[in-house]
Amino acid sequence: MKETIDAAFSMINIIPTVLLILILIYWLTVIVGVFNVDSFDIDADADVDIDVDVEADIDMSAADSILWVNSALAFFNLGKIPFMLLLSFFALSLWVISMLMNYHLNNESVLLSLVYLIPNVFVSAFITKLITSPFVKLFAKAESDIESNRKLTGKMCLVTLSATHNKMGQAEIKIEGSSFIINVMSTEEKYSLRKGDSCLVIDYIPEKKIYLIEPYKN
Q: For 156-215, which CATH class?
């Protein structure tokens, strides 16, 4: 154990070790509630505006470059799952490979360890893609569910269980002959919703899976 710790904090492994420690600190702060999982989320998509009248060739070249970068990032699942989850697997892979590579090659040179770090980055990126691929469908489904729930905003509902701004109740929504029961709370403290009240769905809170509604006024 002592040898592993000494090797981890040696100069030849210090970069992957520091990165891994920062990741561990982040997840500890998530556990205690300082950050949330999406705090450092990154969107791999980019909006590209091309001016076809001025320097069209240059703009097209820049656009192609940006699209290529986006495709490369998307290939490694960036933007498809939370960035910090992706970075966590990458940092762990980078650290393990660095430790094993420098140990088995009997490397003690800091300069050589930096050279080894280059192929390590690429190998770790592919390992991260392999490990995180099962998560892509999971997060895609979760995002789809959230979007579906948001589409209910603006719909009419009938309160079936009384609710206030601080107390959760239930309401019924009828769409194309189908009936849905949703968890609800009123949008403001002044609204006290009773069974049988006709209300309007105003917003959806995905973290709590609760809809905010208020009395419908003709």
A: mainly beta
Residues 212 and 186 sit within 8 Å (Cβ to Cβ): yes
The pTM (predicted TM-score) of the whole model is: 0.56
Q: Which tokens in the block code for residue 80?
A: 């498809």
- Length of the chain equals 218
Count the neighbouring beta carbons within 10 Å of the beta carbon of residue 23. Answer: 18
Residue 31 has pLDDT above 60, yes or no: yes
b/e sequence 74-85, b meaning 16+ C-beta within 10 Å = eebbbbbbbbbb
CA dist., res. 43 & res. 79, Å (int): 5
Q: CA-CA distances (angstroms) from residue 198 to 42, 89, 132, 195, 218?
A: 40, 49, 45, 9, 10
> How far is it between the farthest Cα atoms of the chain?
79
Within the chain, all domains assigned CATH 2.40.50.140 are found at 156-215
